[in-house]
Amino acid sequence: MAACTTIGPPPRPPADAVVYVVGRGWHTDIGLPINEISGPLEALERPFPGVRVLTVGFGDRRFLLTRDRSPLSMLAALLPGRAALLTTALRTEPEAAFGAAHVVRLHVTEAELTRLRVRLWQAFEHGADNQPVLLADGPYPGSLFYAASATYSGLYTCNTWTADVARAGGLPMPATGVLFAGQVMGSARWIASREALLRRP
Q: In terms of residue numbers, what domain contains 19?
């Protein structure tokens, strides 16, 4: 009888860790609660004591740091070039900071969270002291620009990067063809809807 018994796949570990996907117009960020940041990534929270959530976004370095929004600058950003990461420290929930319509909460297991943290740390350029390379203050209080290890281009945008980091955390983001914020946010909302169905009793 044992040979005829159907044995299903082992149960998935609890997906209790939270990952935020944040839409900021044409741009997207990935975010983590501070209690889920550990290891080398703790260097990112040290400048902001009391922070609750840290978000990270990727972009063309010149475009971000000069804040030049002219058509010529935007066209130049489509060419491969150095990139930067903008970290934003929140003292409130992302929904309060950006609006609930622009934030999707997703869940990963502890093992997936570990992989996401590794991928996020790899996204930063590290100096001789193995610390992230700080470039400048960000555009508003509680934000800083760091050097990114990847190259920005019209084929690898801020939204491509967000999808890559989320996928490293086990989230089923598309592996190719992601360029626009709507693609990332649409995928995140679909994942959240699927999670809600799976969590129903």
A: 13-199
